[in-house]
């Protein structure tokens, strides 16, 4: 964590800005802080692990994507009156418990974010601090901003305003269908990416009231969150929203990469084939109308999604306008700093204990294809004992 914080501080731009006055009834106390957002006033709480940290959890950054908002671009959250309690995590987005379970948890009403800051940053004229927005991983199908290891208190205690976000997952976040395309020709899935962009815009517009500098925003994540962060560096919809990306356990987007092929977005047709195949697996007519499609219950939609696990971002011509190689060759990417790397033992680089030498070699061949021999040179094993 300390090395990540040091690297983060290194790539953020230096600069100073003054916090605008926030029209709240009072600053509140360090145990019950109050801050403004564009939708209303929120009340947070004191950190659990670090006494010099304040948190605001479960802040809605967009309207609930339910009913006729399902499979549409996010829209602003409705304003509220009075002071909204922001001391508990918001609902996680709809998903199954894990890849071996059919149990559905979470809610479609899940577009929340969390902010970790310090008492001296609320309602003051202090120098604004750099901001880090965390996009969680989970194969675009699992996870949430509420995972304990990413609660942001440690980073906030070091002087960085930490924000974590939820975004639509799985078939609610990356599903596409001819009826949806007819309704809005520019949209082909990627609702989860649109949520991420919308959340970053919200942060840019509101973070000064929490002590963050809107001109020093870095985004980042791990695994699917890292891929999403890099994708946003290629998206014109995210232009000028952030200054840097920290990508943990992702890689460059190269379509012929035998290891990272799954990082390459689907074409619209590939995404549609996956989506239609899924509808058939849950006994939904693939020719269903858009209104009927939005009426299908989450329980029915998720009957078989545990078998699928194939959701990817989509080369849609809108969020992701062109193949990455073309974007890079023509210099069309957003001009941001990028820091990339892999976390220890990511993707099961170290297999389970008690494997035989034959199992170890087979695992290397399956995972690394044409690079299996190179992997074995880097991580050699000569017998069952060394393979374990």
Description:
There is one protein chain. The chain has 14 helices and 16 strands. With 388 residues, it is an alpha/beta fold. The protein has 2 domains: 2-348, Rossmann fold (3-Layer(aba) Sandwich), CATH 3.40.50; 357-387, no CATH class. The strands form 4 sheets. An 8-stranded mixed β-sheet has the order 4-5-9-11-10-12-13-16, with helices on both faces. Strand 4 (45-46) and strand 5 (54-60) form a beta hairpin. The protein is globular.
Write the layout of secondary structure elements.
Elements: H1 2-11, E1 28-29, E2 32-36, E3 41-43, E4 45-46, E5 54-60, E6 83-85, E7 95-96, E8 104-105, E9 112-117, E10 129-135, H2 153-157, E11 161-165, H3 170-174, H4 178-183, H5 191-206, E12 212-222, H6 224-234, E13 244-248, E14 266-267, H7 268-281, H8 290-295, H9 298-301, H10 305-308, E15 314-315, H11 324-329, E16 337-341, H12 357-368, H13 372-378, H14 384-387
Record keyword descriptors for this entry.
388 residues, single chain, 16 strands, four-stranded mixed β-sheet, Rossmann fold
Q: What's the domain count?
A: 2
Number of strands: 16
- Please report the distance between the alpha carbons of the first and last residues: 28 Å
Largest sheet strand order? 4-5-9-11-10-12-13-16
Mean pLDDT: 85
Signal peptide: 1-19
Protein name: Carboxylic ester hydrolase
Domain Carboxylesterase type B: 32-368
Keywords: Hydrolase, Serine esterase, Signal
